[in-house]
Amino acid sequence: MPKGWLIVNSFIHSSKFDGIYSMLKASADSRGIDLRVVKSGSLPHSVNALRNAVKDVNFALFWDKDVILAKQLEAAGLRLFNSASAVEKCDNKALTATVLEAAGVPVPETYCSPLTFEGVGYNDTAFLDSAAERLGFPMVVKENFGSFGAQVYLAESREALESIVERLGSKGFVMQKFVESSRGRDLRVNVVGGKAVATAVRYSVSGDFRSNVTAGGRILPYCPDERQEAAAVAAAEALDLDFAGVDVLFGPSGEPLICEVNSNPHFKSTLEATGRDISRDIIAHVLKCLRRR
Ligand SMILES: Nc1ncnc2c1ncn2[C@@H]1O[C@H](COP(=O)(O)OP(=O)(O)O)[C@@H](O)[C@H]1O
Ligand SMILES: [Mg+2]
Question: From the CB of 211, is ligand 1 less than 6 Å away?
Fold first, then answer.
């Protein structure tokens, strides 16, 4: 019987996460996998100490964003789904945009903030002028690290942009062209093992420019066209993801633009909308990869 770990963050407690963990565990059980939930804090964050701990474990579903732990586990010999480098590339929106652009995957025009330091901040904002000139207003500002739409802002003017950036202190962020044709609406394409397995359209009902379900958006099943599917699959491939929740915007001529990519997708709302339990696809993909080893 294959033995796996479902590695979760020790400090975040929410029913939203618990629901995902139960689905993954149930799907693993049904395929004869012994999947145990392991809290990140219960593991030694040391390659040498982990070597022994992972000896009898065949794989781990890495549902945390602790990239250091992920890299340590891999160095100790454990196969992670998703890999440490894939989680790292998705977690940071500036890095995601950089990898996607480099791979030729369509994204809205995006500029990353230059690096500053804690206690120093952005004391020279000239770089905002060139971004504003290229992107115009309104523009989207996203903190490099964030989820559920909570760290994504719409700057309507140069003054608004300046005050958002001031509030961010020294945090890194991206500035992105606002895709007006996709206002309050986008697709969540779930990709597993290089295939789009379930897609839903999400839309805001409050007039918010963000469509996140957590921010009050609604979700319905959706049949993606070839281009939308191909763009989502290309994004997952460029980021080396075994599985992904890919957010796809509707470009001005209906063309797909990749908004962002999630390495630990919250697939409960997709299940509610489409009836497809992505955890089953993930477990099937893991088994396929383990058999290939
Ligand atoms: N460039 C953009 N143009 C139009 N809408 C956007 C753009 N970027 C993000 N959004 C909207 O904001 C939402 C949240 O942004 P996203 O990058 O997915 O961050 P999060 O990780 O918080 O979900 C998206 O689902 C989309 O509805
Ligand atoms: Mg998103």
Answer: yes
212 Cβ below 6 A of ligand 1: yes
Domain boundaries 3-85, corresponding CATH code: 3.40.50.20
Number of neighbouring beta carbons within 10 Å of residue 39: 12
Name the closest-CA residue to atom 18, ligand 1: 260
| Closest residue CA from atom 10 of ligand 1 | 210
Residues 53 and 214 sit within 8 Å (Cβ to Cβ): no
Q: Is 144 in the pocket of ligand 1 (CB under 6 A)?
A: no
Question: Residue 214: is its pLDDT beyond 90?
Answer: no
Q: Counting beta carbons within 10 angstroms of the beta carbon of residue 35, is it exposed (0 to 12), middle (13 to 18) or buried (19 or more)?
A: buried
114's enclosing H/E stretch is: none
What is the atom index within ligand 1 of the atom nearest the CA of 176? 1
Q: What is the pTM of this model?
A: 0.96
For the segment 62-98, what is each residue's pLDDT rounded down to a tens digit? 999 999 999 999 999 999 999 999 999 999 999 999 9
- Distances in Å between the Cα of 172 and the Cα atoms of 10, 49, 118, 130, 166 are 25, 33, 11, 17, 12
- CATH for 110-178, options being 3.40.190.10, 3.40.50.300, 3.30.70.60, 3.30.1490.20: 3.30.1490.20
Nearest bound ligand to CA 147? 1
- Alpha carbon of 142 to ligand 1 centroid (Å): 8
Q: How far apart are CA 169 and CA 292, in angstroms?
A: 47
